[in-house]
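Aim 2 progress update. The chain analyzed this quarter is reproduced below.
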Amino acid sequence: MATYQTPKGMKDYAGAAMERRRQMVQVIEQVYRAWGYQPLWTPAMETLQALDAKKGGQADESAAGAEIAGQIFKIEDSDLGLRFDLTVPLARFASSQSLPKPYKRYAIAPVWRREEPQKGRLREFLQADADIIGCPSMRAEAELLAMAAQALQALGIEEFEILLNNRKILQGLVLKLGLQAQEAAVMRALDKLDKIGTEGVKRELAGAGLQAAQADALMDLLCNECNSDNALMLKKAEEYSEDGARELTEILEALASYGLENVRVDLSLVRGLGYYTGPIFEIKAGGGVGSVSGGGRYDQLLGLYGQGDSAVGISLGIERLLALQEEEDQKTNAGERTGVSPTEVMVIGLDASLQDKVLAIAAELRADGLNVETDLNERPMRKQLDYANATGIPFALIVGKKEVESGKYTLKDLSTGQQKEMTVEQAAEQILEMEEEGMD
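Predicted structure tokens:
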């Protein structure tokens, strides 16, 4: 019999993995909503014309950049493709709407890129984006970064660093070296610095037509500027773009008002997407997964689809955050349960004749706000308890004829084995109370 696998670079999620993924999305969404962002859902497919919009200029280049444009999953015999990010659909939507400004939206949905899969990088992956349309102030960048920092902290990630740069500074550097004709290729190569190192980038630059001396000069300027002193970095940045350095200064000042100090200006930071026009940023949180968040300003993108406007956004990578959590779990030996069920209590009947009572008790517990499951196969109690343990259900409420007569049922904590007799109302109260204590 044939064995069917998922497509390359795509995964199934079930049980504990899916529950962890769901919980992460829920936490991030709660943070986004707490800051006043509105949800937006767009189709998984867009027209190829929208996905590969041209920004003009050199060789009528793709707004997303040639590398990303080459990773679009195209639908055969049609003019459609799967979206490669959530920003292009937002630009297409927002440019055709009369929206109150600033328009703050979030979107949590899958995207697809035809690239080589590796750790923390899949062909289908989930992004949690937040964007602000219609705010030219650098306070927009600061708000997005502060909100992302709060989301990371809500996920239990306390140690992270925010990296800042500005495309205007990079463009000034390219201009200083006389490399304007190769700007797009230079940006693509520099974006791979973390992955392939300095020598690898030099080889990419040579392939783009740069002389060895030009590549050496570019890398020397970038790598010699690496310094944790932001004031010194900003002073150096002014040599390439006073406007770009000023914008970074404004972001740093605004971030300070949020109490964020783990921020570093990094002149080697590029970001691969070609539509960025101003400040760009990444958040790194340790481990071997690379950056867990990134974004930037893209003031010219909306104008490619209709009415232009200022815009800036940030994205949290769910897969990379999950990979980071898994690394932490391995260090602490956490996450060993075989299942994590959304069910909070399983009502177990000791006799098939008690099924009506079991269903009535389950309905009562659900009315009290609990997630409740009952057995559909009329299995013996031992089999039902095995199922509850295997799927990660924390409590079982046992219903027998004696319990029905007394009105008191046995509530069993499946993690400790402790059990106690109580009414249905008391059981609901105790489960909710223990869950609240566990979250403190």
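Residues 345-439 form a domain with the Rossmann fold fold (CATH 3.40.50.800). DSSP finds 16 helices and 15 strands in the chain. These observations will guide the mutagenesis experiments scheduled for the next reporting period.
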